Amino acid sequence: MRVLLVTGSSGGHIFPALALMDRLKESGTDLLLVLPKKNNGSGMAQESGCVKYIPAFSLGLRLGSKNISGVCFFLVGAWESLAAIIKFKPDVVVGFGSLHTIAMLFWAWLFRIRTVIHEQNVIPGRANRLLAKFVDKAALSFSQTSSYLKINREKIAVTGNPIRKGLIRLERKAALDFFNFKEGKFNILITGGSQGSHKLNTVCSRALSGCDEKDNLQLLHISGGQDFALLKQVYAQCGIAHKVFDFFPDMQYAYSMADLVICRSGATTIAELQRFGLPAFLIPYPFAYAHQLSNARVLGDCGSALIIRDEELCVDKIRDSVSELIHQPQKLETMRQAYARNQIADAAGLLAKEVLNLS
Length: 359
Prior knowledge:
Elements: E1 2-6, H1 11-25, E2 30-36, E3 51-54, H2 65-88, E4 92-95, H3 102-110, E5 114-119, H4 126-131, E6 137-140, E7 156-158, H5 172-178, E8 186-191, H6 198-209, E9 217-222, H7 228-238, E10 241-245, H8 251-257, E11 260-263, H9 267-276, E12 280-282, H10 289-302, E13 305-307, H11 315-327, H12 329-337, H13 347-356
Parallel strand pairs: 1-2, 1-4, 2-3, 4-5, 5-6, 6-7, 8-9, 8-11, 9-10, 11-12, 12-13
Helix pairs in contact: 1-13, 2-3, 5-8, 6-7, 6-11
């Protein structure tokens, strides 16, 4: 069987595709991953096997030189997508969202090749809303997404959002030792995503470095590049136990040591929190607000997370909320147990099954 996977440029699109590829390799499937050219050299797909890059483009609502250029790149990308279909001869094409996937899935539909889309967020993007009407299967990370798609329910499968196979829970002591942290303290992981979040970084560092319980805290803060030096200085001056990284690839150690995560609510982050069953403070990114707020509500509604709107994010809010969990450990345990109502055991396996069943 031959499967072609096509994604957008963000990690939120690419990482689920890589997780699916890992699972499909177990069945001996021939695979081709197609990415926008802007991802060439990013390292995200280096170990995935056969990768092809096609021109990337962006289209806005206003007529202008950028849009004209975008249309040109779209046409070149569409031509190269057709060439990839003809050369690889896939049995199934799987799209993971974004405008970059439209041409490839259109050619697959035209040539009567079986098609699947995967939607990572609760609210589907424009590309997947359009493509859902034509594909053979729409795989969803969240059951709530089905209400946004005007398609036959038989085409829908709720698979969850596949995450990297290396993200498995480790023994807590091994994870603490990895960071030279001590046992018996309250461990917080703070991350604003791959690019970091200046507001989240500054508010959390000020709140936690000045809280009354700081002697009982250990912080792992993944800052992004912009605030790395600043955070190192802030935490060193206040004497709180900490590790700061601008980027940290081995997240299985971070999640395995954490009692609480303070983070944004992208689709991949939500899936990873579900995998590890971690209580969280979720601060939806304001410039992807509808998507991230809807994602956050999946955990907020079941009681696994506290949602803090970006405009409400302040030193007192973080300090008081952390202090409450430290002094009420039963509340933290209730948040952990709430994940039992929101678990999908093997998202990569379920999505692979849907793909293989189309052959």
